[in-house]
Amino acid sequence: MPGNPTEAENSRTAELKALLVEIARNDPGFFRSLAADVFKIPFGYRWEDHPGVTIGKDVRIHPAARIELGSRSRLTIGDGSSIGPMAVLRPKDFHMVIGPNCSVNDYTMLYDNLVLGRGVRIGAHSLIIPENHTFATRAKYIYEQPCEFKGVVFEDDVWVGSNVVVLDGVRVGKGAILAAGCVVTRDVPPYTIVGGVPARVIKERPA
Questions:
Q1: pTM (two decimals)
Q2: Catalytic choice (50, 95, 125, 133)
Q3: Which residues make beta-bridge pairs with 127?
Q4: Which residue in 2, 38, 83, 144 could disulfide with 61, CB within 3.0 to 4.6 Å?
Q5: Does 133 qualify as catalytic in the annotation?
């Protein structure tokens, strides 16, 4: 019948669908969304429909931001916060909390058990992953050994420069400033400015 797809066309569509599935499994960004929207292939949850998501008032989430949720994920974003383009939020099996009036800028990646207090500003291309591999024995490959998840906490009014890395188990005190490009491996006292690799206290903020 005219207008019906031929067997060859159906075969090409099936091949394209299979290719998109494979790409989507390896790239959870654009192609994953394309596979879900065009071919109705489910990959996780749409954040808008997820029961574990709570979004406050006047929250701005850029359409190009990626929010990746599993069945046990929880995500809270407080009033007046903003998520920039290509930022990634990936709570996995944890409750990620982004407090009110926070900004998460372009290409920043936030994972797992993370808490941002009020007014935290995170510069572009920063990486905060509260997760670490363990390597207690040489008898197993590192990937075969369990990961640990201590969590990361930012207290209120913290400013994070661009290209900052914060490792698991860190608590950043109220009013602290993390200089651009630093790698934070231990707790940061309140109202201090830290920088370097690994990050160290440079000075205290004026009273």
A1: 0.76
A2: 133
A3: 109, 165
A4: 83
A5: yes
DSSP state of 48: G
| CATH H-level superfamily of 44-202 | Hexapeptide repeat proteins (2.160.10.10)
Q: What is the per-residue pLDDT for 48?
A: 74
What was the pLDDT predicted at 20? 61
CA 202 to chain CA centroid, nearest Å: 28
Q: Six-digit token pair at 37?
A: 């929207």
**Measured between alpha carbons, how far is 62 from 197 in angstroms, rounded to an integer?**
31
- Which are the contacts of 108, defined by CB distance < 8 A and separation ≥ 6? 84, 87, 88, 122, 123, 124, 125, 126, 127, 128
Instruction: Using DSSP, state whether 55 is helix, strand or coil.
Output: strand
Q: Which residue has the tokens 């944890």?
A: 94
Residue 142 CB neighbour total at 10 angstroms: 12
SS3 string, 125-171, reads: CCEECCCEECCCCCCCCHHHCCEECCCEEECCCCEECCCCEECCCCE
Per-residue pLDDT averaged across 47-68, rounded?
Answer: 88
- 32/2 Cα distance (integer angstroms): 33
Question: Average pLDDT of 172-194?
Answer: 97
Residue with the two structure tokens 């390896």: 26
Which amino acid, 175? G
Question: Binning pLDDT at 50, 70 and 90, where does residue 42 land?
Answer: very low
SS3 8: helix
Domain locations in the chain? 1-40, 44-202
Give residue 23's pLDDT.
58
CA distances from residue 45 to 29, 39, 42, 48, 70 in whole angstroms, order as listed: 13, 15, 8, 8, 7
